[in-house]
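Working notes for the structural subgroup meeting. M.R. asked for a predicted model of this chain before we commit to crystallization trials. I am recording the input and output together here so anyone reviewing the notebook later can reproduce the run.

Input as submitted:
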Amino acid sequence: MEVSRQDVIDRMEKMLAGRTTREDTGWWALDLLLEELEYEPGYKTLLEDVLRSLQYFHDTEPLMQRFYPDTEEMLYFLKCLKGEEAYHRSRVIHWRV
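Returned structure, recorded in token form:
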């Protein structure tokens, strides 16, 4: 299965606009991660990191909610996916946990 930046941008924007739930987005991301994916050339690390962050939303247990990406992280991911900012893993707290 192929995943592009636009696929992820569309899903994230739907979630942030309230047109889909965080839990549904988490299941979507988890389902993708379970597939053998082909990432948009040049964006494998970014896309994989975004999907790994989003997949936490599928687990609604209170203990797991501490791993949810916050709004600031989501907006950073969107800027990177849109090419407005360079992606640096060290700026995303999930990669420092």
